[in-house]
């Protein structure tokens, strides 16, 4: 496949899980890809739907894998969710089901925790999920709290295989309440707009690289950006055929761009 046009793009929006790493394992070709971005003075941002970690933690995670990337290159669905809620309801309160990356983002945006009568119930990825939290969330939604999800991912890749993600955790709450959550992460245009604003580059000069057809690729298509699907995550050539749209480029991994 001829990648000449792709390599001429000025900016790259990159997913992380399934593109840069699986869990704590760096994927093949990532070192070469990051070096290529820096050597060719490309603008880039890691835009992840995962809400578990803050940018500093993501930076440190890559550092442990031998990649030195400045903290400014990371943006998460947790940050986007916090910014959205702070704009919608300044000084509002939330009941949050999630990890430190989400909780800290909400606090830093001026929101506070409330398990009695919050304005919002917010759900992100977490490994401490149980019936009591589901029950509390359902009660609060019935009490008037609005339901927010950090992203629409049903599953995510890990070093041990596919694991449940935000929308899978949200499902019991949506089913029990009959309410549909509003999801902030990709493919919501909010996330894409934030990424482009941070890069300061036009859509025509930007490419999005991801492993998911239902978030990364559709987000790129709907935002009129070049789309690159890598087969290093949850999507295979076979599963890709289930979707009524296609990416412009299909690569085995990001290392193909640096070749």
Automatic annotation (TrEMBL):
A GO MF term: phosphatase activity
Keyword annotations of the record: Hydrolase
Keyword hit for Nucleus: no
GO CC entries: cytoplasm
UniProt key word DNA-binding: no
Gene3D superfamilies named in the record: HAD superfamily/HAD-like (3.40.50.1000)
PANTHER family in alphabetical order: 4-NITROPHENYLPHOSPHATASE-RELATED, HALOACID DEHALOGENASE-LIKE HYDROLASE DOMAIN-CONTAINING PROTEIN 2
The name this protein goes by in its record: HAD family hydrolase
């Amino acid at each position: 496949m001829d990648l000449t046009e792709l390599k001429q793009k000025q900016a790259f929006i990159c997913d992380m899980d399934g593109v840069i790493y699986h869990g704590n394992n760096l994927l093949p070709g990532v070192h070469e890809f990051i070096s290529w971005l820096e050597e060719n003075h490309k603008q880039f941002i890691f835009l992840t739907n995962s809400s578990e970690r803050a940018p500093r933690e993501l930076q440190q995670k890559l550092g442990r894998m031998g990649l030195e990337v400045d903290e400014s290159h990371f943006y998460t669905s947790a940050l986007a969710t916090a910014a959205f809620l702070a704009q919608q309801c300044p000084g509002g309160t939330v009941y949050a089901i999630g990890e430190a990356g989400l909780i800290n983002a909400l606090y830093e945006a001026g929101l506070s925790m409330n398990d009695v009568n919050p304005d919002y119930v917010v759900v992100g990825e977490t490994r401490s999920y149980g019936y009591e939290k589901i029950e509390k969330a359902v009660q609060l939604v019935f009490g008037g709290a609005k339901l927010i999800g950090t992203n629409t991912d049903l599953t995510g890749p890990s070093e041990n295989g596919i694991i449940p993600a935000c929308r899978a955790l949200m499902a019991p709450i949506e089913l029990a309440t009959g309410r549909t959550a509003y999801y902030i992460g990709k493919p919501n245009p909010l996330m894409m707009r934030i990424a482009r604003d941070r890069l300061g580059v036009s859509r025509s000069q930007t490419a999005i690289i991801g492993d998911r057809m239902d978030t990364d690729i559709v987000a790129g298509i709907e935002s009129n950006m070049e789309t690159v699907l890598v087969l290093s995550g949850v999507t295979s050539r076979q599963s890709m055929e289930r979707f009524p749209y296609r990416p412009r480029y299909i690569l085995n991994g990001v290392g193909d761009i640096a070749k």
